[in-house]
Amino acid sequence: MNKHYSLFVYFFIFSIFNSYAQGPVSRYGKLKLNGLQLSSECSKPVQLKGLSTHGPQWFSGCYSNSSFLDAVANDWKADVFRLALYVEEGGYVDNPTYWKNWVDNMVDEVGKRGMYCLIDWHVLADGDPNKNIVAAKEYWDYMSRKHGGKKHVIYEICNEPNERYKYGASAQENEVNWARIKLYAETIIPIIRKNDPESIIIVGTPYWSNRPWRAAKDPIIGINAYNVMYTFHFYAGTPQHTNNLDTVKTILNKIPVFATEWGLSEESGTGIVDEVSSQNFANVLGGANPSGILVSWCVWSYADKDETSALLKPGSCGSGGWNNRTQAGIKTYELINNPKKDTLTCFPEPKITRQPASIVVKAGDKAMFSVIAAGEKLTFQWQKSTNGINWTNIGTNSASFTINSTVLNDKAYYRVKISNYMGYLISQNAYLNIYSDGPYYGIPFNIPGKIEAEAYDIGGQNKSYFDKSAGNTGNSFRTDDVDIQSITDSLGGYGVGYLDTDEWLDYSVNVLATASYEFRFRVGSALSSKNFKILVDGVTLIPQVNVSNLGNWDSFSTVTVKGVNLTKGMRKIRFYALTDGFNFNYFEARGPQVDCNNEVNGTAKTDACGYCSGGNTGLAPMNDPTKCYIVTSIEEEKLKFEEQIYPNPFSNSIHITSALYPATLQIINLEGKILSETTVETASEIDLSQIKDPGIYQLKLITYSTVSTKKIVKK
Fold first, then answer.
1. How confident is the model over 291-308, as a mean pLDDT?
2. Distance in angstroms (rounded) separating the CA atoms of residues 632 and 422
3. Which of 62-66, 332-336, 487-491 is predicted least confidently?
4. CA quadruple 592, 598, 600, 601: dihedral positive or negative?
5. For burial by CB atoms within 10 Å, which of 97, 365, 430, 575 has the most?
6. For the segment 567-582, what is each residue's pLDDT rounded down to a tens digit?
7. How far apart are CA 442 and CA 444, in angstroms?
8. Which residues sit opposite 561 in a β-bridge?
9. Sign of the dihedral through C-alpha 368, 369, 372, 378
10. Could you give the domains of the chain?
11. Which helix (H) or strand (E) holds 713?
12. CA atoms of 498 and 483, how far apart (whole Å)
């Protein structure tokens, strides 16, 4: 056949909810300690630079509309945002329900923007964290159950323990010493670990968290020390703090430190902005220290308070001036963004470089879908759907999926889910059509558009056509009873000839818009008084079209019929011969311009990635072919271990129930060695008697779409 047929296939891209935007969380993953260094999920050193709220009870207007976080993430480019929830002074103990809800919402909003969220129990006026120990226990149990396992969550369990406020008897210089803070920490840490075994926990240190070296002399040990860090607070305008910084340099090889709060002003929040001291502080925490440790930090405060430590000018929050920076704000922005941040991801995200394509085959033939993807440690899960909405997992872990002998039930949408440690993506849908009946090319012809006479539907006599003579008299193109012949029309190709009275041909079409169309029929005859009619869905639409007598059988002319009204949707057009003695090449329906979003006179276009975008689609063009994919964190499918694994601590066995099967269960020691590996098909009791030594181990559960870990303890 000399003609070329263009098949326009429209794909629906199913977006999975993106738990973390493409920010620091997507780059670094779940944070952990690698020795004394805060590190990424794949053990690379990490330094987070971010901002802290002021007291939300006083500056609610700064935090009531979460749109401010768009500026914090995208304009300030913060890695971490600290929620300074005061315990007293109008804070948590005065209205626990309100403040729980406030923190819950903020944790989610910060996570949506790809930043880490530091949940701070802001001990200040209470002085001794043990003063409100009952409230603290309840709060941290709630928060760790609510947000446990989320990659972006960090816990700061006591902001600034201090000696100046009374607890019981009169205040004494050493009343709230490290021993009392440590007692508090060793009470709270197990409560959190029961619900969240992995997330970073930060413990306050004596004298407004300004003397971490006291903790370095007697650090928390044992199971409570796992992924635990210590605070150091610093204010650049206070000379004593500069001296303290010199001391802190000497302990970075003893305990892991996180500067959860520092300011560019004096410790009162007022006075000068000392940019020189601030730069020195940033340099030291950026690795200019004897240990070369990177220390993460949050600046006080992202608020519009009329004081020099505030990062926003007075009145900014009320007007939405989220980038209306003070002198401290300008310098903080510089420190966050200089030197330029490392944007390398822990594990490269999956990336599709060639999408699976739609296929049309005859029943019984082989069909194969394939995808080309880049990334580390990729797994593939093929999926099938009859409606493009509900999906079933099929196939094995392979970049291709093959059906050796197709049947009608294989007619469906297919796609592949590609996963690795950092996330997963879903390919575009590819459609498999089986030749048995219906449109000849597997999908209906679009109206407006052109349809060749020989491309009538598949189905056979009395189903897709009616022909009075046996066999294909023209012996061309197809092998059924319709008489198809090569033609010498100016456009060449094939045509249907030898038409007889009452013979007919059906064509499946997709009318893109309800409108009036102009039909053009390419027909010819060497005889007079020859004609045909057109039916749509069994109803006569054009009662009679006359065929011109051109004097020979090799000539064709175009007959035009205007004002043909069609209704949008899938339709069946029947070409019905009212007489014998004429030939039929093609017909064409012309009508209003319809864009790829099926909008009449619309402006949507198919971009370089094959997406219909612009116009009324609501989708922006994806014009970079290397970015034609959607990446999503695996967090939304992350398994909830607290409901799956017990007992913990264990003796000789552990019970596991997974939401996804099959799954691979690995037990790994603290040196990273795999001690046990088991395939789990159903809820199971796993024998771990081979684990002899008491201590901490990592349990890793690997499914087709998730990799989840939990700390477990052997008694």
1. 97
2. 9
3. 487-491
4. negative
5. 575
6. 998 999 999 999 999 9
7. 7
8. 519
9. negative
10. 49-337 (3.20.20.80), 447-590 (2.60.120.260), 644-714 (2.60.40.3080)
11. strand 707-714
12. 6
Q: Could you tell me where the beta strands, DSSP code E, fall in 473-593?
A: 484-486, 494-496, 504-511, 515-524, 530-536, 539-547, 557-566, 569-577, 583-590
* Alpha-carbon separation of residue 42 from 20, 32, 256, 456, 592 (angstroms): 18, 9, 18, 58, 56
| Residue 376 annotated as catalytic | no
How much is the pLDDT for 624? 54
Rounded distance between C-alpha atoms, residue 68 and residue 302, angstroms: 10
Residue 421: band (very low, low, confident or very high) from pLDDT cuts 50, 70, 90:
low
Q: Is 261 a catalytic residue?
A: yes
Going by pLDDT thresholds of 50, 70 and 90, the confidence category of residue 238 is very high
Measure the CA dihedral 147/150/153/155, to 10°. Answer: 50
Task: Supply 171's token pair.
Answer: 């205040």
CA 131 vs CA 98, 164, 383: distances in Å: 21, 14, 56
What does the DSSP assignment read for 549-570? B-SSTT--EEEEEEEEEE-SEE
Q: Contact at 8 Å (CB) between 465 and 456?
A: yes
* Tokens found for residue 15: 């977006």
Question: Is the bond preceding 339 in cis, omega lying within 30 degrees of 0?
Answer: yes
Q: Between these two residues, 662 and 263, which has the higher pLDDT value?
A: 263
- State the residue for tokens 């189903």: 463
Catalytic residue among 198, 261, 454, 588: 261
Measured between alpha carbons, how far is residue 668 from residues 42, 190, 688, 700 in Å?
Answer: 15, 22, 12, 8
Please report the pLDDT score of residue 590 as a whole number.
95
Give the mean model confidence (pLDDT) for residues 483-509.
Answer: 91
Q: What is the CA radius of gyration of the chain?
A: 35
Q: Please state, as a whole number, how many other Cβ atoms lie within 10 Å of the Cβ of residue 693.
A: 8
Given 109, 160, 163, 307, which residue is catalytic? 160
Q: In this predicted structure, what is the pLDDT of residue 713?
A: 77
Q: Identify which of 235, 295, 241, 301 has the alpha carbon closest to the alpha carbon of residue 265.
A: 235
pLDDT value at 676 more than 90: no
Axis crossing angle, helix 275-285 with helix 239-249, rounded to the nearest 10: 10
Core vs surface per residue 26-43: b (16+ CB within 10 A) or e: bbbbbbbbeebbbbbbbe
Determine the Cα angle at 66 with ends 62 and 70, to 5°: 100
Closest CA to 637 of 712, 707, 709, 710: 707
